[in-house]
UniProtKB/TrEMBL annotation:
Localization per Swiss-Prot or TrEMBL: Cytoplasm
Any one GO biological process: phosphate ion transport
Database matches in InterPro entries: PhoU (IPR028366), PhoU-like_sf (IPR038078), PhoU_dom (IPR026022)
Protein name: Phosphate-specific transport system accessory protein PhoU
Record bears the keyword Transport: yes
Gene symbol of the encoding locus: phoU
Function: Plays a role in the regulation of phosphate uptake.
Annotated keywords: Cytoplasm, Phosphate transport, Transport
SUPFAM superfamilies per record: PhoU-like
Organism: Novosphingobium umbonatum
Amino acid sequence: MMAEHTVKAFDAEITSLRGLIAEMGGLAEMAINESIQALAKGSLSMAEAVIARDARLDKLEAEVDRLAIRIIALRAPVADDLREVIAALKIAGILERIGDYAKNIAKRVSRIEERTRFEPLTLIPAMAEMAADMVHDVMTAYAARDAALAVEVIERDAKVDAFYDSIFRNMVSFMVENPSTITSAAHLLFVARNIERIGDHATNVAEQVYFAATAEYLADRTERPMN
């Protein structure tokens, strides 16, 4: 009876841990989408809401840390269960950083002047959509322990990087042609860089999902000779 109770308690803790990670993923994705909407619309109120909500992500990360440490200390998980807990710990930190990047984007909304003059601004939402989709899909992979989807998300990061390079070239040309816009354009370059980093962090989550699902690191997988 005691063993059965212990197993049920452990299962409940793992379920809670996964629920916290899922909530963090949802908040991170929302922060990306709303920060870009705020940027496109010039909505300071929406930007302020993104900034204020970031505190919830910080709190959830702390909850994940506490719960994961409790599980390790009291349950001494091994094999699949230990990978699950370690992956959750790492993923929580990554999602918190994604929230920070979205917050940084929101903070720049008030610094973009004469936004109607910025043709490059029309490219940023498309890039952000790609990055947000990566976050959404990697959280789907996490929920399903879908290693194949995790790999697919990682492969998509190259498109986000290429988009960033295109925006960078476009923005530099725009600044050369319109010197009066340099300050605002520089802020938009930082926005694009933040989006590129979000894509990088989505790949980091995907690597943890892959490890939790397969007990292999992607680097080990790719370094093996083909049969």
